[in-house]
Amino acid sequence: MIEEQKYIRPTWDEYFMEIMGTVARRATCDRGRSGCVIVKDKQILCTGYVGSPPGLEHCDDVGHKFKKVLLEDGTTKDHCVRTIHAEQNAICQAAKHGVSLDGATLYCRMEPCSVCAMLIISVGIKRVVAERRYQAAQETRDMFAKVGIELDVVHDELQTYENK
Prior knowledge:
Radius of gyration: 17 Å
Distance between the termini: 51 Å
Largest sheet: 5 strands, mixed
Strand content: 15-25%
Mean pLDDT: 93
Oligomer: single chain
Strand order of the largest sheet: 2-1-5-6-7
Number of helices: 5
C-alpha cells in the first residue's frame, strides 16, 4: 500500500512570492524580468513589473537604453534606464488608484535598490520580502534598519540575469 503524503498549503509568504513570480512574467526588459506584489492584511493591494511607463517604448520591442552606473564597490556597469523598477511601478499603481500602502508588505524578486527603498520608506511599507540578494543593496539594508523596516531574504544568494 502506497502512503499518501498530506497536502501542505503554502505559507502566506510563499503564496505571495509565487504570485510575484507570475507578475514578473509581464516584464518588458530581458535584463531583469522582475515583479512586485504589495499586500496588507493578506489582500493584494497592487502589483508591478519592470517596464516602460505607459505609452513609451519597451526594451523587448526597441532595445535597451544604457547608461553607465557607478556601483558601491567602485566598478561601473551598463544599466538599462528605459524601464522603471517593479517596486516603482507597483507604488505608482497604488497612487494612481488612491490605495494607501501604509503598513503593507512588499514582495519582490531582489532586495530593492536605494531609490526604490526611499519610495518604500516614504509610502509607509513596513516589511519587504525579497527572493534574493541584490549586488548594490547595502545602502537599502542600512536605510531599512534605521527606519525599522523588516527585510527578509528568502534565498541568501545574489540575483543574477543572463543578459546583464
